[in-house]
Amino acid sequence: MSWSWVSPTSRTPAPAASRRRESPALDIIHLLQEKGARVFYHDPHIPSFSHDGFAMTSVKTLDLTLTEADCVVIVTNHAAYDWDTVRSKAKVIVDTHNPLRRH
Question: Which residues contact 24 (CB under 8 A, 6 or more apart)?
Answer without folding.
Answer: 75, 96
